[in-house]
């Protein structure tokens, strides 16, 4: 047996849950990702998606992707830097810059590679990078790759952030990086306070709008716009994999920082550009969210309905203020069991266990889309209530 095989033969954590019949991962979907999806054998209500605008099955988005596939082919066979730039990549970057009210943007093939590449590059030796404890894994990985000193503060605890900032040299580059909407708990970063601290301690701020885009702010511009703080936030990151119904991501900022990243960011330069179909789909979704405000209005209508109903039924839903509703379970095994029982009852939700949350805070994540109906939400609430009561999680 080789070294690796010797080391990993005892990694049996997933098998433990498979044997117990509650393993919740890699469940294959055999249809489009609408509010109801087909799984092998049966249909389930989808409350595990990140497609907040509900556009992944939209005919206009699909047609735009098909046209791009026909015109440009299936891939770009190279990075943006060299042979992989299409006119639609350039158009998307230009339109996103206008939409986000920033000078310029760069589009990447995934949101993960935006955070990973940008953070590794934009701060370095002698600088400081300061993250919220609950920042997304892609921020954590970007932070780890940078040569800056890495610091963090307790989730959304502004006193703790100030304690960290106070100890740092006034003139050093200090970048605070936060999720605008925290992806598992659904709460928002305290941006007004963060911006006040940025001014006081001479820092820069980057906000990850993965879950804010298409949900918060005018026309879905995100949490920075929601708080009226776009000008105060130096860099804004977003993904196409959620509200923009595709795959890919972008960084938006001032022209000089973007110019630097365009020519040095390793995940931008040394990785193939986004596919024509994915790029065109994101562009079409961006047009739709700007032209159809009723989409986001409806998302908020069903979100408010779901928040009220879960509270009325006695679920513990934490500090969420978004279409991401955490239903706390506080026990890993039970979290898997609830996920399985919900699935059997026709409701797809996602289990959240460490490292995606603190060990004592396991939960199932219930997320809304703009095309959910109140009737679908009610079916979800009822099914989950029965399970949570039977399992003794709520009364
Ligand atoms: C907060 C946050 N940032 C970044 C990402 C990465 O985005 P993508 O899925 O587009 O790679 C995600 C996706 O899970 C996320 O939730």
From TrEMBL:
One Pfam assignment: Aminotran_1_2
A GO term for molecular function: 8-amino-7-oxononanoate synthase activity
Pathway recorded for this protein: Lipid metabolism
Keyword Iron on entry: no
EC number: 2.3.1.47
Keyword set, alphabetical order: Acyltransferase, Pyridoxal phosphate, Transferase
InterPro entries per record: Aminotrans_II_pyridoxalP_BS, Aminotransferase_I/II_large, AON_synthase_class-II, PyrdxlP-dep_Trfase, PyrdxlP-dep_Trfase_major, PyrdxlP-dep_Trfase_small
Cofactor: pyridoxal 5'-phosphate
Keyword Acyltransferase attributed: yes
SUPFAM superfamilies tied to this protein: PLP-dependent transferases
Domain Aminotransferase class I/classII large: 43-384
Broadest EC class assigned to this enzyme: transferase
Gene3D superfamilies: Aspartate Aminotransferase, domain 1, Type I PLP-dependent aspartate aminotransferase-like (Major domain)
Domain of life of the source: Bacteria
NCBIfam families from the UniProt entry: SerpalmtaseCFB
Family, per entry: Belongs to the class-II pyridoxal-phosphate-dependent aminotransferase family.
The name this protein goes by in its record: Putative 8-amino-7-oxononanoate synthase
Origin organism lineage: Bacteria, Pseudomonadati, Bacteroidota, Bacteroidia, Bacteroidales
């Amino acid at each position: 047996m080789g070294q690796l095989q010797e080391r990993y033969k005892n990694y049996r954590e997933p098998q433990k849950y498979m044997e117990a019949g509650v393993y919740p991962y890699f469940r294959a979907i055999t249809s489009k990702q609408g509010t109801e999806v087909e799984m092998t054998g049966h249909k389930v209500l989808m409350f595990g998606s990140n497609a907040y605008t509900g556009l992944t099955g939209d005919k206009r988005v699909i047609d735009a992707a098909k046209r791009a596939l026909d015109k440009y082919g299936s891939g770009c066979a190279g990075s943006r830097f060299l042979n992989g730039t299409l006119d639609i990549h350039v158009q998307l970057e230009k339109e996103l810059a206008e939409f986000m009210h920033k000078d310029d943007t760069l589009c990447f093939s995934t949101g993960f590679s935006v955070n990973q590449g940008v953070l590794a590059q934009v701060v370095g030796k002698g600088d400081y990078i300061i993250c919220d404890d609950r920042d997304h894994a892609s921020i954590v990985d970007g932070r780890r790759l940078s040569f800056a000193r890495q610091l963090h503060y307790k989730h959304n605890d502004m006193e703790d952030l100030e304690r960290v900032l106070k100890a740092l040299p006034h003139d050093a580059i200090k970048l605070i990086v936060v999720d605008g909407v925290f992806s598992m708990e659904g709460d928002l970063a305290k941006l007004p306070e963060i911006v006040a601290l940025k001014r006081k301690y001479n820092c820069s701020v980057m906000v990850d709008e993965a879950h804010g885009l298409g949900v918060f702010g005018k026309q879905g511009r995100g949490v920075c716009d929601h708080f009226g703080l776009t000008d105060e936030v130096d860099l804004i990151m977003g993904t196409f994999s959620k509200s923009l119904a595709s795959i890919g991501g972008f960084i938006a900022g001032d022209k000089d920082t973007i110019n630097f990243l365009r020519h040095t960011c390793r995940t931008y330069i040394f990785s193939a550009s986004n596919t024509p179909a994915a790029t065109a789909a994101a562009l079409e979704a961006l047009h739709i969210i700007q032209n159809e405000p009723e989409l986001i209005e409806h998302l908020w209508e069903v979100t408010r309905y779901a928040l009220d109903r879960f509270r009325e039924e006695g679920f513990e839903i934490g500090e969420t203020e978004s279409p991401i509703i955490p239903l706390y379970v506080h026990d890993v095994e039970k979290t898997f069991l609830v996920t399985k029982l919900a699935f059997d009852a026709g409701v797809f939700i996602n289990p959240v266990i460490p490292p995606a949350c603190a060990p004592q805070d396991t939960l199932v994540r219930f997320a809304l889309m703009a095309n959910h109906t109140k009737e679908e939400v009610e079916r979800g609430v009822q099914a989950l209530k029965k399970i949570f009561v039977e399992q003794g999680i709520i009364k």
